[in-house]
Amino acid sequence: MPEELSNEISKELLELIESEDTALKIAEICFENGIGEDEKIRKIAYQTGRVLLGDLPPEKFCEDLEKNTGISAFLAGKIAREINDSIFYPVKESLATLYKTEIVPSEKPSVEVTPGIPPEEKPKREDVYREPIE
Questions:
Q1: Predicted TM-score of the model (pTM)
Q2: Is the dihedral of CA 45, 26, 81, 111 positive or negative?
Q3: Terminal Cα-to-Cα distance of the chain (whole angstroms)
């Protein structure tokens, strides 16, 4: 690692980058979201590392995941939120210092979103367990 780069990055971020726990969290997030291909997991880990090294601003992380891994925008957004919450947010002060910005936790959608079906068009089902009121 170049000397000038390691001087800009906090010890906390360097330890996070080298941590086996970070790699395991990324792999777990990928598996939970249906990504089992080693190449895609490596690309997601690489993009995560770029954020931690100061090479990719956190606000461009989701867009970069979609572009460089070939996953859908919906999936890239979901993975980016989970990585933000579990990896970036705990070191938010170090990232804020590195990027000179504020890192905030991602907001969960207020309505559960099903891919391909807008929230207002979810199919309605009759509750077969409900008894009529007399």
A1: 0.69
A2: positive
A3: 75
